[in-house]
């Protein structure tokens, strides 16, 4: 409250009133989130800023970094909230304005100097034979080289995911623990096959639906290996029906959970030993600056590990744009308002597996929830999308196909129904949400064409 000293006593009172009003409205914006009295500052706007590994560590003690974040001084949290208030809606730290509506082509920016990153891509990619790309990270102006893609650490293979999903659906939940899976309504489940899962109970059903649909959208886009497998389950402590037996062993724990009987929850496979991920240079914006696409000098200086990580980030940013997931990089960007170095800190809901591969965790803010809050978050989502002009070619092709056939929602529904036995229980995207998904696919496709055109022009 250091600024209170600058104001008169009346201003202090007014500020407190303002604080209370804004907290109330912010809590409303984050609808569906549990806002626990006393820790609002620590949880907002990054409820997801739970300690690293909290999604992923079982009964082991959290790592050093996790402990230090848990112990963030309350005064810091309170100050953050206060400063958020003073700057809302985002002004100084706001990334460049987007067009504000999805489904529109990003406004051309002829005056913006072409980034060295793009020039490099254009210069190298245009003349580069596809097969000898080992020295160039970019080919065709806008695609990651195949050699680079081949180095991306494997994630969850389709076979491993399918086998875990089968075990999770057929097995029993033998224990439920608190505290390891984010929000206080979630639980860490131990399954009868010995594996573990984060069980997410949505305050709002759209969150569970978002988790499941985001997982299948990742499948549709060919990037599902980066997400832990997700299955739906109906919680029925009293047995009866096929699902009843699954929860029978944890009746006592369920009683303490306050979950509605019959609720549909998501089970996401728990992954051991994940670590934090800080956004790479292109997105390491400081408050008041625009997002900078990676410059050629930085690209040249980057080692294979950094380039391999950027390959995965390019997918992540497209994925989060398509799902309008504000609970990852976007929530960090939002925090630039009061934390100028937030982009140098760990990214919410993104972790690194022991093999170096990125893991996109906790996607419940995607789709329905994110689409409901587009007005608030697209001014962050869109600049992020536009900051990426290098893509995995397979992802770009998938986007192009979904754009040409205009069937993004239909394909998503087909996958969801085929692969999720409980798909019918949560319903699907509304017609309006389905249209938003298609609009966002179309916008991503246009953006890729825009990058391609810029790259070609740079090669002249
Ligand atoms: C996780 O880390 C612990 C401690 O270093 C190690 O014993 C264990 O094998 C690791 N688990 C996995 C799956 O890598």
TrEMBL record:
Biased segments, Low complexity type: 90-104
Record keywords, A-Z: Signal
Keyword flag Signal: yes
Annotated segments matching region Disordered: 44-75, 90-137
Segment forming the signal sequence: 1-32
InterPro entries: FJX1/FJ (IPR024868)
Stated name of the protein: Four-jointed box protein 1
Organism field: Pogona vitticeps
Gene designation: FJX1
């Amino acid at each position: 409250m250091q600024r209170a000293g600058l104001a008169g006593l009346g201003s202090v009172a007014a500020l407190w009133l303002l604080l209370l009003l804004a907290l109330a409205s912010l809590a409303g914006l984050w609808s569906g989130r549990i806002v626990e009295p006393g820790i609002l500052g620590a949880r907002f706007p990054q409820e997801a800023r739970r300690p690293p590994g909290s999604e992923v560590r079982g009964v082991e003690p959290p790592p050093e970094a996790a402990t230090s974040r848990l112990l963030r001084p309350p005064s810091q949290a309170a100050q953050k909230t206060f400063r958020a208030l003073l700057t809302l809606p985002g002004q100084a730290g706001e990334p460049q304005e987007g067009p504000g509506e999805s489904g529109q082509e990003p406004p051309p920016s002829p005056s913006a100097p072409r980034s060295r990153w793009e020039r490099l891509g254009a210069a190298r990619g245009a003349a580069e034979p596809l097969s000898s790309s080992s020295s160039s990270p970019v080919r065709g102006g806008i695609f990651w080289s195949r050699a680079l893609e081949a180095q991306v650490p494997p994630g969850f293979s389709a076979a491993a995911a399918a086998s875990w999903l089968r075990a999770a659906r057929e097995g029993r939940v033998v224990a439920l623990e608190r505290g390891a899976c984010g929000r206080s309504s979630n639980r860490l489940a131990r399954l009868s096959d010995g594996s573990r899962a984060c069980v997410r109970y949505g305050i709002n059903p759209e969150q569970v639906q978002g988790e499941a649909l985001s997982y299948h959208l990742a499948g549709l886009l060919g990037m599902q290996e980066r997400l832990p497998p997700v299955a739906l389950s109906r919680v029925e402590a009293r047995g009866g029906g096929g699902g009843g037996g699954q929860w029978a062993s944890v009746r006592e724990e369920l009683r303490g959970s306050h979950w509605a009987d019959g609720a549909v929850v998501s089970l996401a496979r728990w992954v051991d030993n994940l670590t934090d991920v800080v956004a790479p240079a292109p997105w390491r914006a400081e408050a008041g600056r625009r997002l900078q696409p990676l410059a050629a000098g930085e690209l040249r200086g980057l080692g294979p590990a950094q380039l391999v990580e950027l390959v995965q980030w390019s997918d992540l940013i497209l994925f989060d744009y398509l799902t309008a997931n504000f609970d990852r990089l976007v929530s960090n960007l939002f925090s630039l308002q009061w934390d100028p170095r937030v982009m140098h800190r760990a990214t919410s809901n993104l972790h690194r597996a022991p093999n170096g591969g990125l893991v996109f965790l906790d996607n419940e803010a995607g789709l329905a929830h994110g689409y409901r809050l587009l007005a608030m978050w697209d001014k962050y989502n869109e600049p992020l999308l536009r900051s990426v002009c290098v893509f995995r070619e397979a992802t770009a092709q998938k986007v192009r196909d979904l754009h040409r056939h205009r069937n993004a929602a239909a394909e998503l529904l087909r996958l969801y129904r085929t692969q999720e036995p409980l798909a019918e229980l949560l319903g699907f995207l509304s017609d309006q949400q389905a249209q938003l998904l298609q609009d966002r696919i179309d916008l991503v496709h246009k953006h890729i064409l825009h990058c391609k055109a810029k790259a070609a022009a740079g090669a002249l």
